[in-house]
Design goal:
By secondary structure, the chain is of the alpha+beta class. The chain has five helices and six strands, in the order E-H-E-E-E-H-E-H-E-H-H. Strands 1, 2, 3 and 4 form a four-stranded antiparallel sheet that branches. A two-stranded parallel ribbon has the order 5-6. The two termini are 17 Å apart.
Length: 165
């Protein structure tokens, strides 16, 4: 599935998606968005710019928790590039690039800002692929059929991959 090259870095992006309200409100309700949502995680190959896999979770779910639930195994030689929502992923995958977070007591210095900027420039391809997925309006807007989200999102990933080829 993945080649064992250090320059072949999978990248992750997650999206919150609004869905129609269901009777099982607690599991799917996102307090932040004040809506019933699904969270979608995309794993993208850095070299080919193709979506490798997709994982879903109902409602409010932390990015790192979504990563752990997906049980995605990435070879240790492959560099993983993630955003700041994946705090703690370096404990499971040592070869990880993630931005350095600032706090009230610890402001970022110029070197840390430069590193974060370089990482963001490498990760911009994720945002482009994410935008291509949002063209189909499945990820962007409300989705009313709860049972078919996974199938339809997988088909959209196939369309995006076919256009990338």
């Amino acid at each position: 599935m993945l080649r064992k090259h250090p320059h072949n870095a999978p990248k992750k992006k997650r999206n919150k998606k609004t869905i129609k309200r269901s009777s099982k409100q607690k599991r799917k309700y996102s307090g932040k968005k004040k809506r019933h949502t699904h969270k979608i995680q995309l794993v993208i190959d850095a070299d080919t710019k193709k979506i490798i896999c997709i994982h879903f979770e109902k409602g409010a779910c932390h990015d790192f928790k979504l990563y752990k639930k997906s049980k995605l195994r990435i070879h240790p030689n492959i560099k993983l590039k993630v955003d700041s929502g994946y705090q703690g992923v370096q404990k499971l995958h040592a070869n990880t690039d993630k931005p350095i977070k600032a706090s009230k007591k610890h402001q970022l210095n110029k070197i840390e800002k430069k590193q974060n900027r370089a990482l963001a420039q490498n990760r911009i391809s994720i945002e482009h692929i994410n935008a291509k997925c949002k063209v189909f309006k499945l990820i962007e807007n409300r989705y009313r059929s709860h049972s078919r989200l996974g199938i339809r999102a997988t088909l959209i990933a196939c369309f995006v991959n076919a256009n990338a080829a």
